[in-house]
Amino acid sequence: MTKEKWLEHAEMVTGLTSPSHGGNREAWRTALAEHLKNPCTECKARQRTRKANKNSRIARAVYRDLGMVRVKGNLGGIYHE
After folding, report:
1. Where are the domains of the chain?
2. Can you list the residues of the chain whose pLDDT is less than 50?
3. For residues 14 and 32, is the Cβ–Cβ distance under 8 A?
4. CA separation for the pair 20, 64 (Å, rounded)
């Protein structure tokens, strides 16, 4: 789940506007913390996406530090040389 979709979900569930859209920061944090105590499937999907993105950034950084270059193959695969 993308960040934008998750923000829409959080605004709908909490009934508040996020601080990035002009809402009250403290009220948003409180309502969001209350919602995240028992995360729904949408929130779990966002957590999986964040974890996958973080792991991908780490892996790309490791390959880059080793001097390898990320290359897209003719059949659509991604390889490091």
Report:
1. 3-80
2. none
3. yes
4. 33
